[in-house]
Amino acid sequence: MAARNKGTVFRVTGLPAFQPDDELKAALKATINDNLAEDEQSKLKPNTAIVPSCYNAEKIALVEFHSGVPAFLSELVANPLGDWQVEMGDTDISFDQHFFGFTQLYSPTPGSPATAE
């Protein structure tokens, strides 16, 4: 079995908690596609996971690009402490790579107890 190459991961904050995950993924995908250069649209396919935020009534997304970094996010690779903001419908969202604070990396399975063993 071939090892899977890890891509560049960005965190997206500011996603509304009331919106279902599948709707958030679709809206985020559309926002990303709107900002991709024409030649990037066929080769850059983001892998997105929506997870709860550790801080407030919002969700966050982890977006991984396996085939390179889109031009609109390339400044974040050069300046890892920066962020890039964009409107997604009526919501302002922010992409970053610094992951300051707590960032949950996955959603727990519903009905499963949370344990720290």
Detailed description of the structure:
Helix content is 17%, strand content 31%. It is an alpha+beta fold and 117 residues long. A 5-stranded antiparallel β-sheet has the order 2-3-1-5-4, with helices on one face. The model has no long low-confidence stretch (mean pLDDT 84).
Mean pLDDT: 84
Number of continuous helical runs: 2
Poorly predicted residue ranges? none
Return the string of H and E elements. Answer: EHEEHEE
Instruction: Work out the number of β strands.
Output: 5
Task: Briefly summarize what is shown.
With 117 residues, the chain is an alpha+beta fold. It is built from two helices and five strands.
Q: Notable features of this structure?
A:
single chain, 117 residues, alpha+beta, 5-stranded antiparallel beta sheet, 2 helices, 5 strands, 17% helix, 31% strand
Give the SSE layout.
Blueprint: E1 8-16, H1 21-35, E2 46-52, E3 58-65, H2 74-78, E4 83-88, E5 91-96
Antiparallel strand pairs: 1-3, 1-5, 2-3, 4-5
